[in-house]
Amino acid sequence: MMSSERDADQRSSYSSRLSSAPSVLSENMEVEPEDGPNLWNEDVEVDWQDKCLQLELSLQKFRDQAAKIRELLREKLAELEHRVTEAESRAEEADRKSVV
């Protein structure tokens, strides 16, 4: 399975889990605002379930990006290790030729 297909499967699986699982943030939580600017404007109605879903999806996108970066770094490291191995073998061969 290609990486893009696997990512699409993971996203669809994640979305289905989100719709079927209750959110931790959707439970009744008593939160007291801290001193400072009034961030709890009672005149503005916020759909917290929608906001939570947006944040969870954003987090999943971030995780997907991090996984892709790790994979790219793994590939680059393998390429560099291969180049080092080749360079070392060329250096050993040149050393043997210079001794003979």
Provide key terms for this protein.
mainly alpha
What would you say this structure looks like, in words?
The structure is a single chain. With 100 residues, the chain is mainly alpha-helical. It is 70% helix and 0% strand. It is built from 2 helices and no strands. The chain has helices at residues 3-20, 48-99. Helix 1 packs antiparallel against helix 2. The longest helix has 52 residues, at 48-99.
Describe the structure concisely for a colleague.
The protein has 100 residues and is mainly α.
Tell me the Rg in angstroms: 26 Å
Query: What is the N-to-C succession of helices and strands?
Result: HH
Please give the alpha-carbon distance between the first and last residues.
Answer: 51 Å
The SS-based structural class is: mainly alpha
Helix content: over 70%
- The average pLDDT is 77
**In total, how many beta strands?**
0
Explain the layout of strands and helices:
Elements: H1 3-20, H2 48-99
